[in-house]
Design brief:
The protein is an alpha+beta fold. It has 2 domains: 21-40 and 148-226, Translation Initiation Factor IF3; 42-145, Alpha-Beta Plaits. Helix content is 30%, strand content 41%. It contains 4 helices and 7 strands. It is elongated, with a radius of gyration of 28 Å. The protein starts with a helix and ends with a strand. 19% of the residues are buried. Mean pLDDT is 86; it is low at 1-11 and 193-204.
Length: 227
């Protein structure tokens, strides 16, 4: 009983938020964004196989055969197992519809789709061509990104804070004050919103792929105390 009572008391204890920092001077809230540009070094594409047949089993068997060939093609191109992931698998009946008539079953459609991460962008176009040749008849993407963005985002954070400090100095000077201290820093948003085209193409005879340039951005909310 003592243990239960102690637990009950603990559960009933309210959670207290950290107290607001005490500001005796003038408070100034600044929102600032820092951004850096990087060339993407990874791309994600979707590759799928859609097959149709009069029976569900034959549609699925044909699909499995072609998807096995598709995955084998990816591995021969140097794509690691960790970069190939099944995204969807479906088997659906197909019907023919006519006015004032009940639907007529015409067969079955099987679909299997994998998500593929490509780490060698120079080979991206040739990999896509090889996928189609091996039996893939659905493609989507690519979605480009930076594999390890931490260092770039840290640069953006430093830039955002420097911008906030400069802006605070500007406001303080205009008001006849000076910046006493930074009271609080909050990171509001981390994003990669912009991709700009640039000349970075796959080899000449393959499907062309323009990787572009990506902007990684960080937004900070910084509170200053002026006096």
């Amino acid at each position: 009983m003592k243990t239960l009572f102690a637990v009950a008391l603990l559960a009933a204890t309210p959670a207290f938020a950290a107290p607001e920092p005490v500001i005796t001077g003038t408070r100034l809230d600044i929102s600032a964004t820092g951004s850096v540009d990087r060339a993407p070094d990874v791309a994600t594409i979707g590759a799928g196989v859609v097959t149709q047949s009069s029976s569900a089993s034959s549609a699925l068997a044909d699909n499995a055969k072609r998807m096995t060939a598709t995955i084998a093609t990816l591995k021969r191109a140097g794509v690691a197992d960790r970069d190939i992931q099944t995204a969807s698998l479906s088997l659906q009946p197909q019907y023919r519809y006519a006015d004032n008539q009940p639907p007529v079953l015409t067969g079955y459609q099987a679909s299997n789709r994998v998500s593929v991460r490509l780490r060698d962008l120079a080979k991206a176009g040739s990999v896509i061509d090889a996928l189609v040749a091996s039996g893939a008849n659905q493609l989507d993407g690519p979605s480009f990104g930076v594999d390890k963005p931490e260092a770039a985002l840290d640069e953006a954070r430093i830039q955002a804070l420097a911008t906030a400090k400069a802006r605070a100095d500007l406001y303080a000077k205009a008001a006849g004050l000076h910046v006493k201290r930074i009271v609080q820093i909050a990171e509001n948003d981390v994003s990669t919103p912009v991709i700009r085209p640039m000349a970075m193409m796959a080899k000449r005879d393959a499907t062309p792929m323009a990787a572009g340039e990506q902007t990684l951005a960080v937004n900070l909310a910084v509170t200053f105390e002026l006096e």
